[in-house]
TrEMBL record:
Alphabetical list of HAMAP family matching this protein: Phe_tRNA_synth_alpha1 (MF_00281)
Cofactor annotation comment: Binds 2 magnesium ions per tetramer.
Name of the featured protein: Phenylalanine--tRNA ligase alpha subunit
Residue ranges the record marks as coiled coil: none
GO BP annotations, alphabetical order: phenylalanyl-tRNA aminoacylation
GO cellular component: cytoplasm
Complex formation: Tetramer of two alpha and two beta subunits.
Gene Ontology MF annotations: ATP binding; magnesium ion binding; phenylalanine-tRNA ligase activity; tRNA binding
Organism: Segatella maculosa OT 289
Cellular compartment(s): Cytoplasm
Gene designation: pheS
Amino acid sequence: MLLEKIETLLQEVGSLTAKNADEVEQLRLKYLSKKGEINALMADFRNVAADQKKNIGIKINELKQAATDKINSLRECLTQVETQTDDLDLTRTAYPIPLGARHPLTIVKNEIIDIFQRMGFVLADGPEIDNDKHVFTMLNFAADHPARDMQDTFFIEQSNPDDVTKNILLRSHTSGDQSHFMETHKPPFRILCPGRVYRNEAISARAHCFFHQVEGLYVDKNVSFTDLKQVLLTFAREMFGPETKIRLRPSYFPFTEPSAEMDISCHICGGEGCGFCKHTGWVEILGCGMVDPNVLEACGIDSNEYTGYAFGMGVERITNLKYRVSDLRMFSENDTRFLNEFVSAH
């Protein structure tokens, strides 16, 4: 009977299989542990007749060795499989993986932000989908004022036909971020509002229905136009070189008074005149001015106590000046041939 049990176990051991290390360990416990099948045979071995003990003892040792060899073999096979597949990831992109770089607009936007942050400006942001109240009304755009045509945008919802302030729209400038900020903060503050904006314009080499802006706002006691001029001069020289000159020309914006357009001396010809600056020696880069008292009052700030200045620039415009990109559409077409030209600028 004992010999038959040993032969049965030998056949079982010979056909053992395992899918993982846990199953191998379970087999070891079943056959080789102190409470395992092979050790249990020793209890029956004590009752074997003396003349049969030698033969049966040899068979038990043979079974134990077979079980040990089989389990070690299964463990070794699993280890080899795991080692061979450790570095194999079929979901990975084929080598070599080309390294990317920042988009040219991101490069320039970050440079603009860095310059103004070193002058004490902090970042503030707002929603791209906003309401008429913050984008237009609080910024001194009357409901029927023709200045609204200057920033015709995409309207999403007309909540109340009798109240334009409730209209929902895509922001046409990041000045709306400033009205949100002024509504909930007390002066003094210096903020910088970068972001994507939208205009209802025909797409061409010089215009697009969306672009990126960086706008700045400083409100405090006794802020003057002189402060604004010095900040913008510092920015221009940091961005375009220490020899850069600026020129401020009177202009009109509903939310600033007085208002101005700022030109820089052409960094291509050094102000001598060339095709890039249309032979004037100057290139326009941004608009600016003193915050209109009506805007301060609409945002809950006492215009008799506080004054401020604001400025805004298009990131695409600055990028064009730095890298002389001829077609504005190239910034959003994701042509890798164009984007690869800016790898070294990263």
